[in-house]
Amino acid sequence: MGTEFIDISHAEEGLKPHVYNFESTQHLVEITDAASQDYDAAADLVTGEWKPGVREWLVLVCVSLLVAMDAFNATVVLPLVPHLPVAFRQPLGVTLWIEASYLLANAASQPFFAMLAALFGVGPIVLGAAVLATVGTGVCSGSVDLSCLVAGRFVQGMGCGGVRAISLEMIDGAIPGGQKIRFHGYVTQVWIFGAMLGLIFGGVLVDHAIWSFYGGFIFCALSLLTIPFAVDLKGYKRMPKCKLHDLNWLAAVLTFMGMGCLLIGTSWGGTLYDWNNWHILVLLCAGGVAMLALFLYESMRAVQPIFSSAVFYSIPKLSVYTGSLLHGFLISCHLLNCCLYLILIKCFSSALTGLSLLTVVSPSLVSLILTEKVRLLRNPCVSPWIVRVGWMCNTISTVFFVILDARTPPQAWVFIFLGTGIGHALLVSGYHRCLHNASKETQPLPPRIRRRKNVSPSYILMYTILRSWGMCIAIPVSGAILLNRIFGGLREERIDPNRHTDKTALSDDAEEQLRRMLVCGFRILWRALMGVSALGSISSLFVR
């Protein structure tokens, strides 16, 4: 019993849809077709002769604009976060959800859009996702209060998560196998550039925070203009309606609801409510039950599990995906909390903070360019060592974060930030190469998985989903660690913890006392990040 699958393959005259049949047990986020492995092998033989045509460059331009939009929207809010509690007169823990809601929707929507693309084709879905991101950007730009802004960011995150997932399929469909790693490298470089642009744009426009979202309209408009030329917008019925129930909608919903409840409960615990308050207990229990139900359903009942055993069947692959989750958590924590440190402890302006954070992001761009140019770094045997050195750099730099306080000289924190950026750069470059090496592995699958024919897991898509979840989890968790320490200190000093963080309402002594509590909270957080870096270092030992 099979279902129809429409693939957009490379051809001399551009992108053409092809229909294949495959078994209904195919993984939802596995981008595959009946001839993909033979096609990639043939493409590798002629990789030196193949040159991209006009249509392929249109696809690359379109995908680049889409991922730049995602990166810009993900980082533009970070320099604004320390100022938003004063602007909206809300606690910092609540305003953190302006960023967390975007990342939550981004991570949760990627499996949904992968399934929708399986039903209706790439063209209509990527256009719909871009329109959804544009609508969310419009809501953010017209926001007058915090609830409206959070809702707009959630819609924006859904659209950007969709374009992030579908853009990977666009590259896989348009570029032959031997060239995919190069073009995926271009797309990753554009994502980093968009993140850098978001940090600068958000920092410069701090006095007009809503204006910072207007920059997203540029990417939205350019993306909507190029999509009709890059993909076929005709809808295709990839699956009969009787097979609609085979798609794993329930698992996607359980993932979103479970993680959402757990993160909200973690964010509110100890700040808005005590940890033993029934609101927190209900949220944490509901999230735990949803995740347990997800595990049982995926293991026993799901026809097409989201987290397929075909993706996680070996220890090296499992190590790569564990590292992607931890790396996403670490980079999101570093960007957010370095921003909070510079503004709340060092009293930097938002514009200078945005520029300072480039020391964490920009080395990744240089690393990817060097990896593409230097032949030695492209050796498959070198990629695992790049990952290990990257985790080592992150671990060492995170240890030095503990010394940061109000008196730390600029040359010290710049050096620490730069070391962190180099570590992240090596991880981005190393994992990028390891994923493409894994997709070419010929290691035999276990018998239970071997029975599934024509299965070719999308390693890059799974890596992107897990890294997105890591970035999402980092915001509420790091905020909870920091704020619980501050609220505990305020209660010990018998200061009202519900007081707004407007510095004009605090005396000089109270402001200095609050700054000392922030430094103590950051030191607890840095120690937690040391543990995350150590786990990443251990996982990198099994990467091949």
UniProtKB/TrEMBL annotation:
Q: Which SUPFAM superfamilies match?
A: MFS general substrate transporter
Q: What is the lineage of its organism?
A: Eukaryota, Fungi, Dikarya, Ascomycota, Pezizomycotina
Q: How does it sit in the membrane?
A: Multi-pass membrane protein
The record's section on Pfam families has: MFS_1
Report TM segments. 57-81, 112-134, 183-205, 211-231, 247-266, 278-297, 318-344, 350-370, 382-404, 410-431, 460-483, 524-543
A Gene Ontology cellular-component term: plasma membrane
- UniProt KW keywords: Membrane, Transmembrane, Transmembrane helix
Q: Which organism is it from?
A: Aspergillus ellipticus CBS 707.79
- Name of the protein in its database record: MFS multidrug transporter
